[in-house]
Design goal:
LRR_dom_sf, Leucine-rich repeat, LRR (right-handed beta-alpha superhelix), mainly beta, leucine-rich repeat
């Protein structure tokens, strides 16, 4: 009886409990589960097979205490479209962490402790439209970190002490609605910054609170509209 009930559940809200851990394969029998809310608990680790609902569309893990995410933690989530990891003390993103989540359109990672973005951090996420990384501790972004994010419309990097903005490439997308770089001191802009291979239209560029003293003509040579 319980098994049949589980197979019919579409949305499961377990937010604001006192969960410290979830046993492997807990959600594997939730064949129709599309939304899983585990926010505002005390989860610390996401192991492989922890969350394996095959048709999951939204996963909310914000406001937990997650520090460790295995590189295959999200491997079963091939249908996922939204992953929310706001407000966790995550230190790093394992290589190819999101390799299997190719249908993801919204990825939220703000208010963590991530210090760098490697070249394969977002590999194969060619459907992502919104990527939020604000208010981490990102000091270095690999020049190929955003390679392949051709549908990205919003990239929020504000509140990070990015030291190599001149080196990494913007996503090779035709247009972006928003690029956030506020509170990114010591942000440095000059004509030597790498550019996307095609011109990028940026509707809104946020550079507030950066203590910038000069902006040269070629700082945004890859943008047709600011």
């Amino acid at each position: 009886m319980f098994r049949k009930l589980v197979e019919r559940i579409v949305c499961s809200d377990l937010a604001q409990n006192k969960l410290h851990a979830i046993e492997n394969n807990t959600f594997c029998d939730f064949k129709k589960l599309e939304v899983l809310s585990l926010d505002r608990n005390n989860l610390t680790t996401i192991y492989p097979e922890t969350i394996c609902a095959p048709n999951l569309r939204e996963l909310h893990l914000d406001y937990n205490n997650i520090q460790l995410i295995a590189s295959t933690s999200f491997q079963p989530l091939t249908a996922i479209k939204l992953i929310n990891l706001d407000y966790n003390p995550i230190l790093n993103l394992p290589p190819e962490l999101f390799k299997s989540t190719v249908k993801t359109t919204i990825l939220r990672l703000p208010f963590n402790n991530i210090s760098k973005i490697d070249a394969t951090a977002f590999k194969d996420l060619d459907k992502v439209a919104i990527l939020r990384l604000q208010t981490n501790n990102i000091k270095h972004v690999d020049r190929k970190a955003f390679f392949g994010l051709n549908k990205l419309k919003l990239l929020q990097l504000s509140g990070n002490p990015i030291g190599n903005f001149r080196e990494f490439n913007l996503p090779n997308t035709a247009s972006m609605n928003f690029l956030g770089l506020s509170r990114s001191y010591p942000l440095k802009l000059d004509e030597n910054r790498n550019r996307a291979s095609n011109p990028v239209i940026i509707e809104t560029l946020d550079l507030t609170n950066n203590f910038l003293s000069t902006i040269k003509n070629l700082d945004f040579g890859d943008c047709r509209t600011l």
